[in-house]
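STRUCTURE REQUEST FORM
Protein name: Subtilisin-like protease fibronectin type-III domain-containing protein
Source organism: Ensete ventricosum
Requested output: structure tokens
Priority: standard
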Amino acid sequence: MALLESFLGLLWMLLAASAVCLASTSADVDTYIVHMDSAAMPSAFSGRRSWYAATLAATAEASDAIPTDEKIVYVYDNAIHGFSARLSSAQLEQLKKSHGFLSCYRDAPVKKDTTHTSDFLELSASTGLWPASNYGEDVIIGVLDSGIWPESASFRDDGLSAIPSRWRGACEKGTAFSSSACNRKLIGARSFNKGLLASDPNLTIAVNSPRDTDGHGTHTSSTAGGNYVEGASFFGYASGVARGMAPRARLAMYKVLWDEGAVVSDVIAGIDQAISDGVDVISLSLGLDDVALYEDPIAVASFAAVQKGIFVSTSAGNEGPFLGFLHNGTPWVLTVAAGTVDREFAALIGLGDGTLVTGQSLYPGSPASLKQMPMAFLESCDNTTLLKKTRHKIVVCQADGLGGAIQYLRYAKVDAGLFISNDSISDLYSQFSFPAAIISPQDGPTILNYIHRSSEPIATITFRQTVLGTKPAPTVATYTSRGPSASCPTVLKPDVMAPGSLILASWAQNSTVGRVGTHNLYSPFAIDSGTSMACPHASGVAASLKAARPGWSPAAIRSALMTTASHLDNTGAPIKDMGNRNKHASPLAMGAGHIDPNRALEPGLVYDAGTEDYVNLLCAMNFTSRQLRTITRTATVDCSNPTLDLNYPSFIAYFDPNKTSAGAPSVREFRRTVTNIGDNPVASYTAKLVDIKGFTVSVAPEKLSFKEKYEKQSFTLTLKENTREKKDAVLHGSLTWVDDEEKYVVRSPIVATTVSPISL
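Status: completed
Returned output:
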């Protein structure tokens, strides 16, 4: 079959080449992006890659000494059907006559965001949230983290006005940190380590100041509210213009995480000071596992923050993919899960037969291309002796788990490696310290077949490739922690998902961003993954919402983010979960869905809640009086109206999987109240339900009619178990309120589960 394809491919090239043969000089060569009609691919070709290569080879001129595989810059399988290539004007004209050609355009410099996430979230300078909020102008985001690198270009104060007069914070000096390090962008910086020092009196803090020595805090701060930075990249990956989610917001750093450790008391002190200083948003990319609400410093301190009207955004944790390990499942904060974006970092592998394969890689070393290297397949690559004998080749491995295989190749000091793997956390391994790439199981056979049929297999690997528009995206990241919340099971968590995988943002330049061989690398920007990266995306969007809608409560902002979130990916299909074999993601993994900032600006209806609502919830949780007062900070707590039914934009019901068929069917009821904040004071909304298998889901009334703005209307949602047959552990549907003009679509997820939350 391979020989037949080679023959037919050669025939295809000869026939196409006979059409036109024009001379050109190298001076008019440029890069073009070519769209092809995949349905027009001749049956002679087993895949689009070989078809593209043959089509492009047909345009080669007699004087052209550049091999086809080196002309091709990228092969696109998901974003578009086509490729990008270096072409002369004559070759381009000939290509336009090729069978299956659709269109092409010259590759050109564009103004894009380096993190790319603002593009992915469709934030625009012309319409939507950014212009409505003036890019989050003057909203103050307090970040509790590992400190900040004030010299980063992301924290320049170009174009910003005077510091808001309501600001009461300070810029504290310390080790390698001057009080003049702050400006109109970074308006405050403090550090807290008294608790840490108290836990170990012999401890010495190496850098006792707000300066970041880890990189984490600089990354999260710049993601939330960093200024514009042109020419940003990670060693050529993701190059472009960097900016945070609220570029004109102000930032204040509260350093509570140290190289030497971190303790609860310092976190509480940081939040306490942030409230006092006058922040509007608190961003917390940290958390504690297995603690009850009254023992959780984030839960306790953020209760006070929310009472002051401060929006608190937190990370869900990185303990996925198993259910029930989420932290920050606090009902008065936003809990953010992590997902992917429509961008991949890649290496292009050109095999000796001209076939092109794209692999996943963030190898930052030089040279950026390895040319015509011999290849060897060593199966699982766990034989050190064989690895050392073939170290000067591109070693190809079949790696179910990437960690072990990568370690073997690193130890053997091989020149390059290709890992064929379906590891669901491959993103976390792609930043190699030696030239390497991860190959999908779909593309692996192409490489292996070439090696097996070639007496001297060779390949060229080109690194530092960035592909935009990949599909499907987003997907739920494997590592993101799942609900249900152990600390408050009756509130569905997480709330939403935001970009968290392979996010580029600023970095502390005294902290390494990787290694090449034995050499540490340093860079003003780094690419990192985790719910720590997802949280500041939501924090920055919340800051912009607060700037555009200053009268909204923290609960209203959270409601707007949740009810407008998308449960569909960029193919129009339900978002998939990488940690669950790419099945449809459940709300226990992604919450209401992926944040949609522009839609959140106009949610139509909101599920509002305040201190009294949270107190009523706490009163129903069987806490002692002391535990209640620990959270509420009041001398007495009014528990005259306890209820577990918080006015929340989502629903979760638990059912006993061991219950017998005898007796009445299980029923769960939820009462909710929505507030009309749409443009039209007089409006009607109709309920649309997505049913849950094995349950009857109903809502009463089925229509809500409003006569004025800010009017409230209530409804009851009921889940009734239809059958005692065994059900999936997690089932889900949704309730959506749609106005008569179909301008507002207010969606809430519904979960029915037999998973018992961890008892705290």
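Reviewer notes: The CA atoms of residues 278 and 511 lie 30 Å apart. Residues 1-27, 108-115 have pLDDT under 50 and may be disordered.
Form closed.
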